Amino acid sequence: MAGLGVPGKRKVLITGASGRIGRALVPAFEEDYELVLIDREEFPGDVCAKIICADAADISLMRSLCEGVDTVVPLAISGNMHDGWETLQLANLTGIWAALQAAAEAGCRRVIIPSTILLAIDPERPYCSAKLWAEQIGEAYARRNNLSVIALRIGAVVAVNEPVLFPDSEKLSRILTHTDLVRLFSAAIEAPDDIRYGVFWGISANNPGLVDISETRRMLGYRPKDDAFRLARRAALKPRGIARITKRYIKKWIAR
C-alpha cells in the first residue's frame, strides 16, 4: 500500500517544512511518521529527516517525491495576510496545485490543505479569497481522482508562552496552540479514508471559541486540550504577567 515505506509508519511529505507551522509539526511527527521535507531554507533546528532544499512549486520534483507517499501537507504558502495578488497566486495557489496534481498522479491517499480562520472574520480580504480558491481546487481534485482532500481552517497559531496569550488579547477565541496544532494535523492524517473531501475549522478548546469545531471533533477525531482563556489567566498570575499588568496601570495613571 502506498505510504508505508517504513513498516508501520505512514510516509508524509511536508512542503514549506521550515516555516512557522512546519517548525511545530516536524519535531512532533518524527516518531510517528516517515517524513519527506521540502523547503527553500534549512530547518532551523535538529531533526532526523533530511530537508530537501528546493521549490515546492516545481511539479517535476513533486512528482518524483510523491512516489510512495501516503499524505501530502503543502505548507509552502504565504502566511502574510497583506500580500498582493501576484504573491498569493504564486505561493498559495501554484504550490497547492503542484501538490494536488503530483499526489493524484502518484496515487497518494490524502492531501491536507492549510486554510485560514480569517474566512470567519474578513472573507473579502484577498488573502482569504486565495485560501478559498485553494479549498475549491482541492475539492475538484478530490471529485475527479481517487484522492482524499482535507482543508483545515487554521486558527492563530501560537506557542503557550507567547505574549498574545494574555487576558487583554482579542485573539483568544481563535487561538490554536502548537500542541493542538499537532493534534489537529495528526487527526487529519489519520482520519478515515472515506472522507473524500471536507473543510474543518481548527482552533484549540477555547471557551468561548470563535467557530464551532464539533464537526472537526466528530469527523476527524480531533481532541484539543488547551483553552486559550485559561492559559491567559495563568499567564497573568506569573511574574512576567504581573509586571505587564503593573506597567499598564502605571501608564494609565501617568496619562491622567
Q: Reading side by side through the largest sheet, how are the strands ordered?
A: 3-2-1-4-5-6-9
Strand count, sense and closure of the main sheet?
A: 7 strands, parallel
Radius of gyration: 19 Å
Low-confidence stretches: none
What's the number of helices? Answer: 8
Helix content: 40-55%
Terminus-to-terminus distance: 70 Å
The proportion of strand residues reads 15-25%
Report the order of strands and helices: EHEEHEHEHEEEHEHHH
What overall form do the CA principal axes indicate?
globular
Structural class: alpha/beta
Number of strands: 9
Question: Averaged pLDDT, please?
Answer: 90
Q: How does this structure look, described?
A:
The protein contains 8 helices and 9 strands. The protein has helices at 20-29, 59-65, 85-106, 126-144, 178-190, 214-220, 228-237, 239-255, and strands at 10-15, 33-39, 51-53, 71-74, 110-116, 148-154, 156-158, 175-177, 197-202. Helix 3 links the parallel strand 4 (71-74) and strand 5. Helix 1 (20-29) crosses helix 5 (178-190) and helix 2 packs parallel to helix 3. The longest helix is centred in the middle third of the chain and has 22 residues, at 85-106.
